[in-house]
Amino acid sequence: MMNDPAHAKLRTHAGEIFTGKNLQRRFGRQKDFTMQFNRKTSIGMGLALMAAFMNSFIAILSKQLSSANLNPSSIAFYRASIVFCIMLLVAYGVNVTRAGGRPEKPAAMASIGSVKVFAIAALFGLFGLFYFETSAYKYEMASNVVFVMMASAAISSLLLESSLKMERITGKKILALGASILGLLIVFDLAHLRNMNGVMLAMAAGTSYGLFSVYLRKQGVKASMHFMRNMFFFGAIYLAIPATIDGFSAVKPAHVPAILALAIVPSLLGTLCTMKSLEYLSASRVQTIELTEPIFVAIMAYLMIAETPGPTQMMGYAFILAGVFCMNSPDRTANT
């Protein structure tokens, strides 16, 4: 009976479970997962933090241009059109370099499916974000606009990803998002909301940004010069409509530095970093990381004008960072 082949096979299998080789194989898989997670998450977090840093310039530059009597629709249009022109020049320079001094023939026209992706991404990520955000600064304090917009983006991206079954809502994610939003509440003074128009516009901008992030993730879009150029082309067309209705604001030489900085730093580089981070992390994780934007504002204020945050603000920053790290801690059952 003891020499029965079935019993021998069972004993062999039971022995393998507790052998050093089997345990090493199991722990090896766990180690490989952890290393892959750390590498992938670190790259995504780094890119999202860079996007948050660059986006921290938006409020200051937009307020500066608005105070110079440039209307919001014109500011938003100039942002998109300048980036599109920059991308055209970069593409031309790359083509000339590759062709040995003469530009290559234009590439074949994009497919209808590609055009649809460009158009929808531009609708959410450029028209919805740029126009509503810039308009919100006209009615409400910059800090309040930033809070409402960022919270709306993080919440909308998490809910939409869950509804599309791209990401599972877990207690950890709710706790992480709640901690980050609580940190924002502590940092910003929302007791002095001045105008509900500004709040609603900021919510529209944030929700549009969240939709943009989820859409790019869902489509598997890779950040590339080709995609950026076409997306900003459609964005400039969309934003030209309200700018034409409101009337284009005249640009004076004194406005040029701020407009160029607004176009290059947050609009071009910030958007690029956000798109690249979505190749490594889910949209809800990227949006939660970008809630660190006020921390970068505080750092710049300290370095440039020696403005030191108080204990209450420091506590708020701690909550934001705790939420970010909690959202991006290893979770084998969730999608990254």
UniProtKB/TrEMBL annotation:
The keyword NADP does not apply. It is a multi-pass membrane protein. Residues 43-188, 197-328 form the EamA domain. InterPro entries: Diverse_Substrate_Transporter, EamA_dom, EmrE-like. The chain crosses the membrane at residues 43-61, 76-95, 107-132, 144-162, 174-193, 199-216, 228-248, 254-275. The keyword Cytoplasm does not apply. Gene3D superfamilies: 1.10.3730.20. GO terms for cellular component: plasma membrane. Keywords: Cell membrane, Membrane, Transmembrane, Transmembrane helix. It is found in: Cell membrane. Its main location: membrane. Pfam families: EamA. This is EamA domain-containing protein. It comes from Verminephrobacter eiseniae (strain EF01-2).
